[in-house]
Amino acid sequence: MLSSPDVLIATRHHQMFPVLEASEIGRIARLGERRTYAAGSHIFTTGEVAVGAFVLLSGRVDITQRNRHAEPELIVTHGPGSFMGELAQLSGRPSLVDGVAREPVEALVIPPSRLRELLVEEAELGERIMRALILRRVRLLRSGAGGPVIVGGADNTDVLRLEGFLERNGHPHQRLDPNSDPCARALIERFQVTPRKLPLVLCPNGAMLRNPTEVELARYIGMVASLDPDRVYDVAIVGAGPAGLAAAVYAASEGLSTLVLDCRAFGGQAGASARIENYLGFPTGITGAALMARAYNQAQKFRAEMAIPDEVGRLDVPTNAGCIRLTLANAEQVRSRSVVIASGARYRRLGVQNLASFEGSSVHYWASPLEAQLCGGQEVALVGAGNSAGQAAVYLADRVAKVWMIVRGHSLDASMSRYLIERIAATRNIQIMYNTSVSALDGSDGLLQAVRCRSHLSSDERTCAIRHLFLFIGADPNTDWLAGSGIALDDRGFIRTGANFQGPLVVRHNHRIPYRHAISYDAACARGSALR
Ligand SMILES: Cc1cc2nc3c(=O)[nH]c(=O)nc-3n(C[C@H](O)[C@H](O)[C@H](O)COP(=O)(O)OP(=O)(O)OC[C@H]3O[C@@H](n4cnc5c(N)ncnc54)[C@H](O)[C@@H]3O)c2cc1C
Question: pTM of the predicted model, to two decimals?
Answer without folding.
Answer: 0.86
